[in-house]
Design brief:
Layout lengths: L6 E4 L2 E4 L21 H12 L10 H11 L5 E4 L6 H13 L4 E4 L7 H15 L1 E2 L5 E2 L5 E11 L5 H19 L4 E2 L1 E2 L2 E2 L5 E6 L2 E6 L5 H9 L7 E5 L18 E4 L3 H10 L23 E7 L14 E5 L1
Parallel strand pairs: 3-4, 4-16, 7-16, 12-13, 13-14
Antiparallel strand pairs: 1-2, 5-6, 7-15, 8-11, 9-10, 11-12
Helix pairs in contact: 2-3, 5-7
Length: 321
C-alpha cells in the first residue's frame, strides 16, 4: 500500500501526498451565510407561516448541509424532536436540488398543538406553495407527499374488537415500512372487505394484507391469472411466525410472502382472544378483563386538515407523528 504521509521532494520543493477521500469531513465552525443563522431560521419559518409562531427554529440551510454530507440520496431521516419541521423542509429542498429520494419521519409530542398548527402546516405549504408576508410567490416542492399520524392506545384486553383495531392500525405501520399508501377497493376481480383483507398499490409496488386465513386460496387463484411486472408483498395476520410460503408455492414467482415484524406480532398475540369457551355473559373464560394498563402500540392516520399528496409516480413520502 502506498504511504501517503511521506514527504515528496521534487524540483527543489517538499510536498506531501494528500488525496481527497470520498464524502466530506464536517467542519467545526460553520460561519458562512450559506449555513444560515439562528435569525435566518426564524426568517425561514416566518416566510412560510406568516407569523413568529415558534421560538428559535433551526435554519433549514444548516440541516440541509448536515444531510448533504451525512446521508445518501435514498436515506431515511428520523427527527424525534421535530419542532417547527425544519428537518423535513431541508430534506425536500435537498431532494429537489440533487435528485435524491430521501424520506423523512418527524416525531413530536404535539405540545400546545405544535404539530397540527406549525409542523404540519409549515410543510404542507412548502409542498403546495405559498406567498410570503412580503408578497413573494414561492412555488411548492410538489413532488412530495405528507402524512400525519397520531399515536394512540389500544387496550391489551384479548378480544375480537381489540384484534380488529390492532390489525387496522398495524396495517398503517406496514404501509410505512413498505412505502405504499394507496389503498384499493378491489384485488383483481375480488371486492375487498377491509376487516378481512386490504390491498395497496402505487406504480409497480403492491402489498396485500390478509387478516382472515380462510381467504388465502381465493387470493391464490386470483393471482394466478394476474399479469404482473413486479411481485406482490403479502402479509398474513396470524399468531405464529409462519409466513405461509408453502400455501403460496404455486405463485411464488409473483409474490413475496413476508413475516409480520416482531413488534406487530407480539402486540397481535397480546390482544388475540384465547381459544376458550364463552361464559353466559359472552366473556372469554380465563381472560383477564382488567389489565393494569394499556400500551401505545400503534398509530392512526389522522390528518388535522386535508391530506397533502401529489399523484405523481415519482413522489417522496414524509411521515409525521
Amino acid at each position: 500500500m502506498e504511504d501517503y504521509d511521506k514527504l515528496v521532494f521534487e524540483n527543489g520543493c517538499v510536498y506531501t501526498k494528500n488525496y481527497k477521500k470520498e464524502g466530506a469531513i464536517a467542519r467545526s465552525l460553520l460561519l458562512e451565510d450559506r449555513f444560515g443563522r439562528t435569525r435566518t431560521g426564524k426568517t425561514d419559518c416566518y416566510a412560510v407561516l406568516g407569523s413568529n409562531a415558534f421560538s428559535n427554529p433551526k435554519p433549514y440551510k444548516l440541516i440541509r448541509y448536515f444531510e448533504l454530507i451525512a446521508s445518501s440520496k435514498d436515506a431515511l431521516i428520523l427527527d424525534f424532536f421535530a419542532g417547527s419541521g425544519t428537518t423535513l423542509q431541508a430534506t425536500m429542498q435537498l431532494n429537489s436540488e440533487d435528485g435524491g429520494r430521501r424520506r423523512c419521519i418527524l416525531v413530536t409530542n404535539n405540545e400546545n398543538k405544535i404539530c397540527e398548527t406549525i409542523t404540519y402546516e409549515r410543510n404542507k405549504r412548502v409542498i403546495n406553495g405559498y406567498t410570503t408576508p412580503t408578497g413573494e410567490v414561492v412555488n411548492g416542492l410538489s413532488n412530495n407527499n405528507l402524512r400525519y399520524y397520531v399515536a394512540d392506545f389500544i387496550s391489551r384486553v384479548p378480544s375480537y374488537k381489540n384484534k380488529r383495531k390492532l390489525v387496522s392500525v398495524a396495517s398503517d405501520l406496514l404501509c410505512i415500512k413498505e412505502d405504499i399508501y394507496d389503498e384499493q377497493d378491489t384485488f383483481g376481480n375480488i371486492t375487498l372487505d377491509k376487516h378481512r383483507a386490504r390491498y395497496f398499490e402505487h406504480g409497480n409496488k403492491r402489498m396485500l394484507i390478509i387478516c382472515d386465513e380462510s381467504l388465502i386460496f381465493g387470493f391464490i387463484e386470483e393471482i394466478q391469472g394476474m399479469p404482473l411486472d413486479s411481485k406482490i408483498k403479502i402479509y398474513v395476520f396470524s399468531d405464529s411466525t409462519y409466513a405461509y410460503e408453502d400455501d403460496f408455492a404455486e405463485v411464488l414467482d409473483k409474490v413475496e410472502v413476508c413475516a409480520l415484524p416482531a413488534a406487530i406480532l407480539a402486540a397481535y398475540k397480546d390482544v388475540l382472544p384465547a381459544q376458550a369457551e364463552l361464559d353466559v355473559d359472552g366473556n372469554f373464560i380465563g381472560v383477564d378483563t382488567h389489565p393494569e394498563e394499556s400500551e401505545p402500540i400503534s398509530v392512526n392516520d389522522n390528518p388535522p386538515q386535508e391530506d397533502t399528496e401529489d399523484d405523481a409516480d415519482e413522489s417522496f413520502n414524509s411521515t409525521l407523528f
